[in-house]
């Protein structure tokens, strides 16, 4: 169906978006996984993700660090300690608020606590005095019908995904969101000259506009230590 537009001619991104996977995303892949607490090694993600040829291009000398972080994920991944997931790990937004004269608001429903990001599109530059943050310093611009979100100013406490995919404070993320009819395409390109050999384009996601799957308020985040979490049969009497 036709893409709705606002009075300024830009696509109308307003609404709630049910996150799915794009046609270019391998079945079972977790790239862009927006749940920051998903456990490394789960069968539904691990095999497909390691088999995906689109792996983060870490410098050869850093691969041992990646493997060590992945091995000790429950002890070193800040997502297990209720810290924000960061960008692009938080993935595509669950809802978008777009109003004339205001920054675009991206809303997220995540286990570490629902959150939001403000994306000004008034032509301003990055704040040279901004503190290093979990979600960085974002500015936006339009390239045709695509909203481009440019973010720098990250701290180095988050990962770009599970499996030990760490980054430095020189992380630079470009996110592209484009609406066609009632679908929203999201893709992030990651640059980090300290750890990557080249920019890396993550597999895209496709979201569908919805009025049913509204974001809900998550309960308070509880720190997790997977090494000491046990499972039991629901029928077992404790």
Question: Brief overview, please?
Answer:
This protein is mostly beta strands. Helix content is 8%, strand content 24%. It has helices at 46-51, 63-71, 73-76, and strands at 15-19, 95-97, 104-108, 115-119, 137-143, 146-152, 172-180, 183-191, 200-201, 205-210.
Average pLDDT, rounded to a whole number, is: 82
N- to C-terminal separation?
A: 54 Å
The profile of the biggest β sheet is: 10 strands, antiparallel
Q: What share of residues are in beta strands?
A: 15-25%
Number of strands: 10
Structural shape: globular
Task: Walk me through the topology.
Blueprint: E1 15-19, H1 46-51, H2 63-71, H3 73-76, E2 95-97, E3 104-108, E4 115-119, E5 137-143, E6 146-152, E7 172-180, E8 183-191, E9 200-201, E10 205-210
Antiparallel strand pairs: 1-2, 1-10, 2-3, 3-4, 5-6, 6-7, 7-8, 8-9, 8-10
Describe this structure as you would to a colleague.
The structure is a single chain. The chain has 238 residues and is mainly beta. Helix content is 8%, strand content 24%. The chain is built from 3 helices and 10 strands, in the order E-H-H-H-E-E-E-E-E-E-E-E-E. Strands 1, 2, 3, 4, 5, 6, 7, 8, 9 and 10 form a 10-stranded antiparallel sheet that branches. A hairpin with a 6-residue loop joins strand 2 and strand 3 (104-108). The longest helix is centred in the N-terminal third of the chain and has 9 residues, at 63-71. It is globular and about 50 Å long. The chain starts with 14 loop residues before the first strand and ends in a 28-residue tail after the last strand. Residues 23-44 and 230-238 have low confidence and may be disordered.
């Amino acid at each position: 169906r036709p893409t709705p537009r606002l009075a300024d001619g830009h696509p109308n991104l307003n609404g709630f978006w049910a996150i799915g996977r794009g046609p270019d995303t391998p079945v079972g892949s977790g790239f862009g996984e927006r749940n920051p607490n998903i456990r490394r090694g789960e069968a539904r993600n691990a095999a497909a993700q390691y088999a995906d040829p689109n792996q983060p291009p870490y410098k050869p000398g850093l691969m041992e660090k990646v493997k060590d972080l992945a091995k000790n994920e429950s002890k070193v991944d800040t997502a297990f300690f209720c810290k924000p997931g960061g960008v692009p790990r938080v993935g595509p937004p669950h809802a978008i608020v777009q109003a004339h004269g205001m920054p675009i608001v991206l809303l997220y429903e995540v286990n570490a606590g629902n959150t939001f990001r403000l994306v000004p599109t008034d032509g301003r530059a990055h704040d040279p005095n901004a503190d290093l943050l979990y979600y960085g310093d974002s500015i936006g611009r339009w390239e045709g019908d695509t909203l481009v979100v440019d973010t720098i100013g990250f701290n180095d406490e988050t990962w770009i995904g599970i499996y030990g995919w760490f980054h430095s404070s020189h992380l630079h993320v470009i996110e592209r969101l484009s609406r066609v009819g009632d679908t929203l395409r999201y893709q992030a390109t990651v640059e980090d000259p300290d750890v990557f050999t080249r920019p890396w384009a993550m597999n895209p996601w496709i979201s569908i506009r919805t009025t049913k799957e509204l974001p809900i308020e998550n309960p308070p985040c509880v720190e997790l230590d997977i090494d000491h979490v046990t499972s039991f049969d629901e029928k077992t009497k404790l």
